[in-house]
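Question:
Now give any protein.
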Amino acid sequence: MIYLPILLVFLLYFLGIPIAYALFGSAIFYFTFFDAGMPADLVLQKFITSAASFPLLAIPFFVMAGSVMNYSGISRKLMQMAEVLTGHLIGGLAQVNVVMSTFMGGVSGSANADAAMQSKILVPQMEKRGYSRSFSAAITAASSAISPVIPPGIVMIIYALIAQVSVAELFVAGYVPGIIMAGALMFTVTLIARKRKYKPSRDKRASLREIGAQFTDSIWSLSLPFGVILGLRFGLFTPTEAGAIAVLASILIGLFVYKELKFNHIKHILLDTIYGTGTVVLIIVAASVFGYYLTWERIPQEFTAMLLEFTSNKYMMLAVINVFLLLIGMFLEGGAALIILAPLLVPVAVALGIDPIHFGMIMIINIMIGGVTPPFGSMMFTTCSVTKVSVGDFMREIWPFIIALIFALIVITYAPALVLFLPSLM
């Protein structure tokens, strides 16, 4: 019966209850009817004090930074840079889509924000160039899985808080996996575009002079994420302060460099920030109360022991965890899945000698792949709703990209040196 709250979470979620309420309701149910030794006011106190966390302030700052960048012209400059670099390739605008998501990882830090933005900007352009709308939506959703892997992703901050690892090291670890995912998707786009005869968006490769001119024009956009990482690396500021600096830098660039940020954008930026922050933080706070129940019943320890009895081979365990996470990711939103599962799986990984930084990248990539996979992938629904593509048409186009992302996941899982090389230099 002690596992009933876990089953209740999934039952409520599939009945359409928001995951935050499902987590909190299940925990309250447990402490009210199963273990009355914990007074209800202490459970509510845990709910309130969980939000009083300095590291959590990084989330609203990075959400706001992403919104400011969209209105300040930074996102547009990144798209222009992506087109100069890859527009001449087979499947030009689809390749631009992938590179744009890779650039946007250091900007929005959110897969759904990236999917929504590119659905509005790039998909209509792709349709005009002869790409089918369903293919355009599929590559947009698939490429958005890269955004949270390239720093500074919001899910990275959440994992670092749960696993008690360095945010700066986790940020740096994301670059190589993100590039591997982008390469796998670009190769898949080339194969499909060659078969369907999708034309490049540019007639010829950009000259070095043209690339240099665009790089100079986009240098402020490109330097922002690297500035954040370098500041963290050299101890100039904490992750929370890094978020505030990203907001300030974005505002200054939008006002004085690109001159596209206007006074009437303030309302939209604040609304984006409030909505994005409220959704994420409410889930985190509810999950902390649910985690109180897990700790009270020693479920993470029991779960670790059960998995270790199944196999003590870490490579076999990684395969089992990958399959498990891919299945869970199809049904649970990424942040919620990470918050629920990380406390259960990180102790297993550590017990088998798997580096928690490496394991964090495995978890994040798994959950992002789940986000584009039917039946309940969150980026799938975001992209389909914005582009007005039916889920059936989307499903027919997305499978080659899911296979490409799974191939990248396997490489990242079984070649930890690729992930840990950059953090090891810190």
The chain has a mean pLDDT of 82. Residues 51-424 form one domain.
